[in-house]
TrEMBL record:
Keyword Ion transport appears in the UniProt entry: no
Protein name from the UniProt record: proton-translocating NAD(P)(+) transhydrogenase
Family: Belongs to the AlaDH/PNT family.
Cellular component annotations (GO), alphabetically ordered: plasma membrane
Amino acid sequence: MAEDTQSTITYGIFNETAEYESRVALTPDIVKRLKRSSVECVIESNAGHAAGFSDEDYVKAGARIGSKDEVISQARAFGFVGRPDDELIGKLPKGSWVIGMLGSFTDQEYVNRLDKAGLVGVGIEKLPRQLSSAQSMDEMTSQNSVMGYKAVLKAADAYGSFFPMMTTAAGTIRPAKVLILGAGIAGLQAIGTARRLGAVVTAYDVRPAAKGEVLSLGAKFLDLGLDFSKGQGEGGYARQLTAEEQAAQQAAVDKKAAEFDVVITTAKVPGRKPPVLLTKAGVDGLHRGAVIVDCAASELGGNVEGSAPNQTIITDNGVQLIGAPDLASGVATTASNLLARNVADVLTHFVHDGSLVMDLNEELDNAMVVAGRDESTATKEEEK
């Protein structure tokens, strides 16, 4: 157990410093919501500006505005869109709680640094999302939904024709044919958005349950002639395919992709290298003017061979390959509203009688607390 001894918890938020980040981990509406749980808020000046929230908005909601140093000195729980860097870790008071997507699946060294600094790290990436009590905390679901929406808008903007069919005096323009690879939260949102724009949509996912979801949204399901009947992993995520399965999938997708004008890939495996769904051969098979949006592009790789994060590459055959890992940041106001609720609900889960308490016998606590687990040998029951 780790505990904040203050009767009222102070929750601090900083201005996110990542290059492509416009979101903020607290919105004025959530300030009001947290007050009902005995949580006061202090936020760094201008932290919400890029997301459309002024300092005045926060003050009216009941938050305090301060400098970064003032936030550090006043708060004992801190919420992040991403995670604090090493410099900030060194400044946070020992015993403070750090809540965000901490990358604990792949970066144990970072978790160790939180431990060494005496901080309690709550990694939302380890949220057991299948629990009904965890749904409002599920940052990955909320942000992937925004990502799927924005991916379609980005593709439509880059594509040189209309998405819907248009009948004009000069002739009829056929609708765009869009392929969505990955029918999880982002993929399903992309399907719905592309269909609302009038495209003819086809989608594919290795999970057996995905076919019914795709068809229910009015899209076609891409038949690759393959059977990955065990394609669903833990917590509702797609499992990592074997090397043989990936090779068979890639070859089939490469061949089918040539039929489409737009390809959007959304297959992420949390904390791991994304599976390659479209190889260079598949990219080369698309027609000139086709657009690919790779939502999984990252430093670890992407769903599309040759994609790069936050770069648009024009291939030799005239295909636009867009690496777009930060699409949710492009819808910063809505994304922040959703994310702030997720992070705040994680925080209040640990609030008991005006204190922050972890109970490692409780499933949510045991899953999400990745650092500071040995902060105290007391138990929640002993504290009571």
